[in-house]
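Two quick folds needed for the group meeting slides. Do the first one here.
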Amino acid sequence: MIIPLRKWLSVLKFLIVFVSLAYMFYHVLTLFTAWITPVDHYRIPEGHAVKAFQSGDGKQDGERMGDRLRFYFWYGE
């Protein structure tokens, strides 16, 4: 019985290269995802940003629904 050793070695070499490149590609995509995704989705806005959602009943300081709607459209949300 003849064992095709060279063929098996070439297949093994191909599989090792394929798995290592797939592993590297996975980690590159993981780093890219971590870089592009904000750290905290629910942090308090900084600067002139306005948080659109506030938990609670929504009626503060005599605020009316029309005023809230006007404020919403004023900032282009």
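Then this one, please, same format:
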Amino acid sequence: MISDFIGWIFALLVVGPLQAEIQEQAERARLPVEIVRQSRACLTSQGAQLIERAAGDYGWAAATVVSIAIGHTAPAELLDGSDPQCAALASALKGAGEGA
């Protein structure tokens, strides 16, 4: 039960802002439609994995929430660049972040 609650809080505080940030950066960088489509698939798979990890590792979840809240970690940094669905998005966001 507590794992479900932690997963829900993590989704609210991390996964939601991650989706919003990625959408905002994708629009700002005018990413190609294919990358935007891949980003949705990436967020679906990665979001579920992040919530599962948070529900199983409360320390990691708390540290990640605090790190994102204080601006030490960008939510996009949580994406797994080795995931084929996320690779193009991760590299595009890194390029957009460096150009800003």
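Slide caption for protein two: The helical segments are 2-29, 33-56, 58-69, 84-99.
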